[in-house]
Amino acid sequence: MIKNSTLSILFLLLLLSFQTALASDTDKKTIHEDFTIELPKIIIADIPSEITLHFKNESHLKNDSILVQINESEVWIQPKQNQIKIPFVFKGNDAVQVIISQQTQKINYNAIPLWMSILPPLIAILMALVFKEVFSALFVGLFTGTLIIFGYQDVSFFTAIFKAIFAISDTYIIQSLADTGHISIIVFSMLIGAMVNLITQNGGMQGVVNKLSRFANSSRSGQFVTWILGVLIFFDDYANTLVVGNTMRPVTDKLKVSREKLAYIVDSTAAPVASIAMITTWIGIELSYIQSATAQINIDESPYSIFLNSLPTRFYPFFTLFFILMIVIMKKDFGPMYKAEQRAKSEGNLSEVDKQNNDEIENIEISPEIPTRWYNAGIPVMVVIFGTFAGLIYTGWNGNVWEDSSISFGTKLSHIIGASDSYLALLWSSISAVLVAAALSMGQKILSLKKTVDALVKGFKTMLTAILILILAWALADITKDLHTADFISKILIATEVPPEFLPTFTFILSALIAFSTGSSWGTMAILYPLILPASWALCHSAGMLDAESMNIFYITVSAILAGSVLGDHCSPISDTTILSSLASSCNHIEHVRTQLPYALTVGSIAIILGLLPAAYGVSSWILIPLGFITLFLIVKLVGKR
């Protein structure tokens, strides 16, 4: 009853917000005798946007410049074509008045209040956590966003509802699928699912389990081997998540490790390792963001040098990796994870949703006649790992960098992989692994051609649920982008005057909030690097700091943006890497988020208190990192339960 009342109140607030918007009967495109004024399809209040002028004839081209008066401001434009875009900031419910050559035109508009941009992700996240059902949560989040957009357009409320429902599929879902990177992740995930199912059917996965059981013969050793694999596959977080999760799941199942615990280890070794290793798919995008920011403030230091100098203060990734190790070695847990582990050990129930929702792969029974040869699974998995690495080098190869004798081998490799196309590398390696697995199965006459194809198709099907969640999450991310959710969060926090020493902590929290709301760590970095880095440099100098002191704050702020985005990504139920971790571990997605959240927030708090804050005041990372490790050890020892 309370849940239904809460949802009713939320939609009532939306309805009341639209009443003013629906009162207008003007179009966003008004035709005058000489020109047409077009407003954006989605108008957000207080966000820099633009209006478009369409000239009906070419008489204006004869002039070198034309004076355009827009409301109280005047703009001189150089008419080189019949369509001209002019920057403009919309304010609430107002009008745009344009005067050109003594001809006046006025258009009323209804801008969406910026605060409403937080509603779609907020409702989706709250529904997912409360109802523990992610499909309906993402759909309601999408519907809230599209309803806000169409509710502020010149249509009736019921028309807005219908348009909002249709826009979910014909605009945002299609838009998320039109992204080549998203399609690459879907195809890669399907191919990995097909490979895993095939190497399970041909007995290879059982052979791997038998081999790893020599090293992973207890719950602790099984978790430790998972942690080791997560650290070793450092070059890409997607490859790390899917390979480690799918490889170790049969092993940890046998050792009665809960799926929630497996998903946590997989998720919390993927992005943290990729964010601190110097040879990863993250390097190129991060360097480009840093370069775009440094270009604004004329810093001579290279982006790669800034990246290296920021590494020692990336406290959250370092602390996360150590925290997992302590949890594993000391065999202690706390919070929801403790209950999940207790359930798995005492009841043998590996997942909260258990029997009816378990992945199809685990229910496969292998014929006793099928040999359990570890290399039938080991070789395809190695093809994925080394094939991805080789693909990264191939797609990012730069002969000039490689032949530069003044650069070290590690730096050369880092530059090359940083410039690579990770999606191509992942696709090439995964299709190669599928072909190798099929060849091994048929070449040894373990499976016939028909059974091999059936196994591959069944593997594709096992990925459908996670792929649907990914598509809805990407669509919701597009909604938050159109509504400028990140700008809303940034404006609130940036409005507070922050002392230079508090800026890294402030940035870390801001980055985590944006990543949590949008479900994208890379998107968060894209927003904050060009926004915060120039601001940090200006803030330090305005406080009277010297260049050396300013650069220290600058380096820590670079780290804070990346580390905060990883933290927010870990906590968000709409994050693609969190979804992939649930997928690879066959864990209920909401249970994964619920059990991981206390651990991520614990480590994040220590990263602030014993990392970012003292580092900004000049305390060395050589002191802070060991101090953070000791504190995390004590937390696990004193709070954790065996």
Automatic annotation (TrEMBL):
Pfam families: Na_H_antiporter. Residues 1-23 form the signal peptide. It is found in: Cell membrane. GO terms for cellular component: plasma membrane. The chain crosses the membrane at residues 112-129, 185-204, 224-243, 264-285, 314-330, 374-397, 423-443, 455-477, 508-532, 599-617, 623-640. It is a multi-pass membrane protein. Keywords: Cell membrane, Membrane, Signal, Transmembrane, Transmembrane helix. Its main location: membrane. Residues 279-611 form the Na+/H+ antiporter NhaC-like C-terminal domain. It comes from the Bacteria. This is Sodium:proton antiporter. It comes from Marinifilum breve.
